[in-house]
Design goal:
The complex is a heterotrimer of chains A (334), B (262) and C (292).
Chain A (H helix, E strand, L loop, with lengths): L13 H23 L8 H31 L12 H18 L8 H20 L7 H23 L4 H12 L8 H28 L3 H6 L4 H23 L5 H13 L3 H26 L10 H23 L3
Helix pairs in contact in A: 1-2, 1-11, 2-7, 2-9, 2-10, 2-11, 3-4, 3-5, 3-6, 4-5, 4-9, 7-9, 7-11, 10-11
Chain B lengths: L7 E11 L2 E11 L4 E5 L6 H9 L6 E6 L2 E2 L5 H5 L2 E4 L11 H7 L13 H13 L15 H14 L4 E5 L7 H17 L3 E5 L3 H7 L2 E6 L2 E6 L1 H4 L2 H8 L3 E4 L8 E4 L1
Parallel strand pairs in B: 3-8, 3-9, 6-7, 7-8
Antiparallel strand pairs in B: 1-2, 1-4, 4-5, 9-10, 11-12
Helix pairs in contact in B: 3-5, 4-5
Chain C lengths: L1 H17 L13 E3 L2 H9 L6 E3 L23 H5 L5 E4 L7 H6 L4 E4 L7 H12 L3 H22 L6 E6 L5 E3 L4 H8 L3 E2 L10 E3 L2 H7 L3 E5 L5 H9 L5 H4 L3 E4 L11 H13 L15
Parallel strand pairs in C: 1-2, 1-3, 3-4, 5-7, 5-9, 9-10
Antiparallel strand pairs in C: 5-6, 6-8
The chains are: A mainly alpha (334), B alpha/beta (262), C alpha/beta (292).
């Protein structure tokens, strides 16, 4: 699969792990602090609070998507896996688009805001993917990926159909949501709920990370080493689904994070998934906070009010993958 | 068959992947600590399926597998891992771990949630690598090793589980003569010196006969013969099992004759 | 790895330092931000242009006038808006979109104005006057608008009503359906909006040539960019089955203000009446009939 053993080629001890956690926490806090100082408006407490909340939301989204991506790449033994293959982002899109279409005719209740619709659509799609892929309550990697692809295309078709009935003004709105952007004003309750989902899910993934390592030796070997393979798959699927739904509710489908960041962390920390899931979470938070700050500050200079943060992640994603691919050719890895 | 002293015993195992096409039709087998048992038989005789039933990964339609007298299904995966270890036919790792990391994965059932390695775990891993002569490449990855070396690493990983039984599935099918001999020697040494029960599915009658303490010969899902090599390596027995005419070539004194197909 | 990270931190810090624009001057009077092209034009038509301190990037301004471009309604950036220190913000959308602005500075007023139908224009004028405490100015502007509209209505009263269709573009055009201000203008100028017979459920309808043919308008007006205008005219006149093409009553307009709701629509109404009923319909108009 991926890259060099890394600096922790030896055993991972509690002390080493603690040191790494502290370092990552410090780095994230440093980046967050610096980002909150950058911007156009005069610095007042309200301005700083508004930025800090949005950066916190960016951290939650970044951590959820990146840690989820790292977990899926381990669980499915596939370097191209990332949370959206489970169909979650397209499901959220269907939820939001349905809401937009309905709101043109009837007034929606107050709680049916875009984030809630996105979350509901995401979880519904998760359930659908599971229902299609499962066999006697168990998941296997191949059918999971296939089920995700099927549900994704189906959702895409539904969205195209809905476009016919929504006027183009609202479609433009949806198009911006679909690029992935952090809203200007952060809803505290939403942030709290999504943050809790993200942290809870991340905990489950960290507890499963040792299992991902052993899974790399094959299902048979892993099972005989004491890994409950089926339970691991279910727990990971549920955790990643929840975390991704939370991320999409906060910021829409921000792309490429779940794919790029785990690869970067693997290059820095090695293949060990315990470090991978941990570092990816922090790195994802840092990445998205920086991207959000970039979008916020340079947007006005480019004429747009702000650039959707998903554009920055997508623009860095493409070149990164070209680089990865060329590197694999050089190394001769299949 | 499943008396005291047998750490792993199978009684009347029947299994079929598809209804009406039985792969195992009443197989019984016992493995005692201190002995190397080899499973022999033509392709499709159900050897690998039997191994999976012994591991608890397949549920037999009839019969049961007992570990230390208790049915396999009664053990949790972690408990099972502390008793039985498995070595696959082809050593492979989807991720680029070092040999040390791979061997430490054998400690999964003994460590906590994050699988953090304590001093005891490191000591056991070191011992396992010592016994398999893999300590020299502890910091290299599987891809850098030859087939024989990689297979020894997988055996070390299995040993790190500190099991009472090790099950191997055709461990030398892709190795050259020298490595084949080395691995069988190692298996016999482990069985005798650790001591543990080693059960190995073999594809090569001669190598198995030379090193095993017990042979189990299967055909079409049944056990055709079982016992020490001298009793099993006989023309009539082998002809029935492999459906081919056999010549037995005498080997140096005290050794089992060499089997040659006509 | 740590070295890369430190460089990254320094870059962030530099970005923070560099991203402060010059502070705009303080002055008396309201500081208005307009988040819709229609509202922007309405403000200028009412004579309030000097108080406007920020517009969207899609807003068109009178020639020679410049204002800071603050993005658009879909990409609201609270800090960019606050950088021009507004006192009130007008938009054609729900105020919740600007919650980020109000989080930081609750004193900024956010007012939603609807500008979909023709009658929304005088209503918007009145509301603007109310918000800015300039009732007399608003009343004058509103009266002027309504008088012009009434004058056109009078001049076409009693004439036969042809079917009129207003489209934007040629291939896959957008038609003005019922509920748009263009539909109201057609009705006021003595026509029947053929857009009501173009299938669709939205106000501005994405449609195709077959639906246009089915709607069979007697007069077809197409809005296009100045560069594309000759080709657009040729395109529509080429459809021989179209009643409007057969009768030679295809008009191409290039003024973007045809689809920006503002008091100027009352001026355009006169030209519309000429296109529908012929040049003698209203008082002698400036320029050639039909293209403006």
């Amino acid at each position: 699969m991926a890259d060099a053993p890394g600096p922790t080629a030896g055993a991972l001890s509690a002390g080493k792990l603690a040191a790494i956690v502290v370092a990552l926490l410090a780095a994230t806090a440093a980046v967050g602090g610096l980002c909150s100082l950058a911007g156009l408006a005069e610095m007042t407490p309200q301005v700083w609070l508004s930025r800090a909340l949005r950066l916190l939301a960016a951290a939650v989204v970044g951590a959820s998507l990146a840690a989820g991506g790292a977990a899926l790449q381990g669980l499915l033994r596939n370097p191209l896996a990332e949370p959206y293959i489970l169909g979650i982002s397209s499901g959220a899109g269907v939820g939001v688009l349905l809401g937009l279409a309905a709101s043109a005719r009837v007034a929606l209740p107050l709680w049916a805001s875009t984030p809630v619709l996105a979350f509901a659509g995401a979880m519904a799609t998760c359930a659908a993917v599971y229902a299609i892929a499962q066999r006697r309550g168990r998941l296997d990697p191949y059918s999971l990926i296939l089920s995700g692809v099927i549900v994704n295309s189906f959702n895409g078709a539904i969205m195209l159909t809905i476009y016919l009935y929504v006027d183009r003004y609202r479609i433009a709105d949806f198009a911006y949501w679909a690029m992935g952007q952090l809203p200007d004003s952060t809803n505290l309750r939403l942030l709290a709920v999504c943050g809790a989902c993200a942290v809870g899910g991340w905990g489950v993934l960290l507890a499963s990370a040792a299992g991902f390592n052993v899974l790399g030796l094959g299902d048979d070997v892993a099972a005989s080493s004491g890994v409950s393979v089926h339970r691991l798959r279910l727990a990971t699927f549920a955790a990643v689904g929840l975390m991704t739904a939370a991320a999409v509710a906060l910021a829409g489908p921000v792309g490429f994070l779940g794919l790029i960041v785990p690869h970067l962390c693997r290059m820095a920390f090695g293949a060990d998934h315990r470090l991978g899931v941990l570092a990816s979470g922090f790195a994802g938070a840092i990445f998205l906070m920086a991207a959000e700050t970039l979008c916020r500050t340079i947007g006005p200079y480019l004429g747009a009010g702000r650039i959707p943060v998903g554009i920055v992640t997508a623009l860095t994603g493409g070149p990164f993958f070209i680089y990865l691919l060329r590197r694999r050719f050089r190394e001769g890895v299949e | 068959m499943s008396g005291a002293g047998h750490v792993l015993a199978a009684e009347g195992i029947a299994f079929e992947y598809r209804a009406g096409q039985p792969v195992l039709a009443g197989v019984s087998l016992a493995a005692a600590p201190g002995r190397l048992t080899c499973l022999l038989g033509p392709n499709g005789s159900g050897k690998t399926t039997l191994l999976k039933c012994l591991l608890g990964q397949l549920s037999p339609r009839a019969g049961r597998v007992l570990l230390d007298g208790r049915p396999v299904a009664d053990h949790s995966p972690r408990e099972l891992a502390r008793l039985v270890a498995y070595v696959p036919q082809f050593p492979a790792s989807a991720f680029r771990f070092t040999v040390r990391q791979i061997v430490l994965m054998g400690r999964f059932a003994h460590t906590g949630v994050l699988g953090l390695a304590g001093p005891r775990d490191l000591a056991v891993a070191r011992e396992a690598m010592n016994m398999t002569q893999t300590l020299g490449f502890a910091d290299r990855t599987l891809e850098e090793l030859s087939g024989g070396e990689a297979q020894r690493v997988m055996i070390a990983r299995a040993l790190a589980q500190q099991p009472s039984v090790v099950l191997l599935d055709e461990p030398t099918s892709h190795l050259d003569i020298k490595n084949q001999l080395r691995i069988y020697e190692m298996m016999r040494r482990l069985a005798h010196d650790w001591p543990m029960a080693v059960v190995c599915v073999s594809h090569d009658v001669n190598v198995a006969a030379r090193f095993a303490d017990d042979l189990v010969l299967m055909r079409a899902g049944r056990v055709v013969a079982t016992g020490p090599p001298r009793e099993v390596i006989r023309e009539d027995v082998l002809r029935e099992a492999y459906d081919v005419e056999i010549d037995l070539v005498p080997a140096p004194p005290d050794d089992v004759p060499i089997v040659r197909a006509r | 790895m740590p070295k890369t990270f430190c460089i990254f931190l320094c870059a962030l810090a530099a970005a923070g330092g560099c991203s402060k624009p010059a502070r705009p001057p303080k002055g008396a009077g309201p500081r208005i931000v307009s988040f819709s092209p229609g509202i922007t034009r309405t403000l200028w038509d009412m004579g309030l242009g000097e108080h406007v301190v920020g517009v969207t990037r899609f807003c068109t301004l009178p020639p020679g006038v410049e204002r800071p471009r603050l993005g658009d309604m879909l990409t609201v950036n609270a800090e960019a808006i606050l950088a021009v220190r507004p006192t009130v913000l007008f938009a054609q959308t729900s105020p919740s979109r600007f919650q980020g602005v109000r989080d930081i500075d609750p004193a900024v007023g956010v007012v939603e104005l609807t500008m979909e139908e023709l009658k929304d224009v005088p209503a918007a004028i009145e509301r603007i006057g109310q918000v800015l405490a300039r009732p007399k100015l608003a009343a004058r502007a509103k009266a002027g608008f309504e008088a012009k509209v009434a004058a056109v209505r009078r001049s076409v009263a009693g004439r036969p009503r042809p079917r009129v269709l207003f489209v934007m573009g040629t291939d896959r055009p957008t038609a003005a359906g019922p509920g748009t201000f263009v539909a109201d203008m057609i009705e006021a100028a003595g026509g029947i909006n053929a857009g009501a017979d173009v299938s669709g459920s939205t106000r501005w309808r994405a449609t195709q040539i077959e639906a246009v043919l089915k709607a069979a308008p007697d007069v077809l007006i197409c809005q296009a960019d100045p560069a594309a205008a000759p080709a657009a005219g040729a395109y529509w006149r080429g459809w021989r089955d179209l009643p409007a093409a057969k009768a030679g009553r295809v008009h191409v307009v290039t003024d973007p203000r045809w689809t920006i709701p503002s008091p100027y629509l009352a001026e355009l109404l006169g030209r519309l009446a000429e296109m529908i009923h012929g040049p003698a319909a209203t008082q002698p108009s400036k320029g050639r009939g039909g293209d403006g």
